Amino acid sequence: MILLLILTLLIGIMGGAVGVGGMLQAPVFEIVAGLDPHTAIGTAMCALIPSILAGAYMYRSVARKEWRTALPVILGGVLLVGPGIMLKAILPGRVLTLILGCFIFISGVPAFFSGKALEEGPSALMRKKSVLFALGSVIGVLAGLTGMGGSALCVPSMMLMGYAPLTSIATGFTYSVPVSILGSLGNYANQAVDLPLAGITAGVGALGTCAGALLARRVPQRQLKRCVSVGCMVAGLCLVIRSL
């Protein structure tokens, strides 16, 4: 149990600092706590709700400034997370994990070797509400399929679109609030949530998220962008290894 709590704390710090990390909670539940994959995914999404709420609160000032960006992304996710949960019972879990891991890893590579294009901000096309809605919809389906709140995909995707790291992280947390709650209700209805374990780890993860968010505000944007990239690449690699 001590190892589980330590890993949960580290996952929270990583999530609060770079916006990705919660995706590792399900593998930890599966490997350390011995849960089956479906229960591990459902329990992870439920346990991450306090961390997501904490992250949304810590980044609230950024989220308020960027609400026009976040709103279409959130709407797309809320509408499509349900179908994603239904598809989860049909498609092979390991194949989905492999695809997701590859996507996250690849998303982190361009930002790590950031050039002028990534420093100029999002183009007019990438600011269109239809594009942001489509992004949220795709992430919503994948969140439902994998049991993740959505930040793991939202943050690297928005960075590739040219958005600043703090904007991407704040949008990711805001997006994940309704998606994780709806997803947890769906998983609970399917009896795929270990509530006692989720309750034990939830508070520790939230504390880690707050600590990570404070750390992120003290790191320059360029360094934070590289931290996000490294986080994406490490997390993506972990998911690929897990799927093999």
UniProtKB/TrEMBL annotation:
Keyword Methyltransferase assigned: no
Superkingdom field: Bacteria
GO terms under cellular component: plasma membrane
Topology relative to the membrane: Multi-pass membrane protein
Keywords for this protein: Cell membrane, Membrane, Transmembrane, Transmembrane helix
Main localization (coarse): membrane
TM spans (from-to): 41-59, 71-91, 97-118, 130-153, 195-216
Pfam families assigned: TauE
Subcellular location: Cell membrane; Membrane
Family per similarity comment: Belongs to the 4-toluene sulfonate uptake permease (TSUP) (TC 2.A.102) family.
Protein known as: Probable membrane transporter protein
Organism: uncultured delta proteobacterium
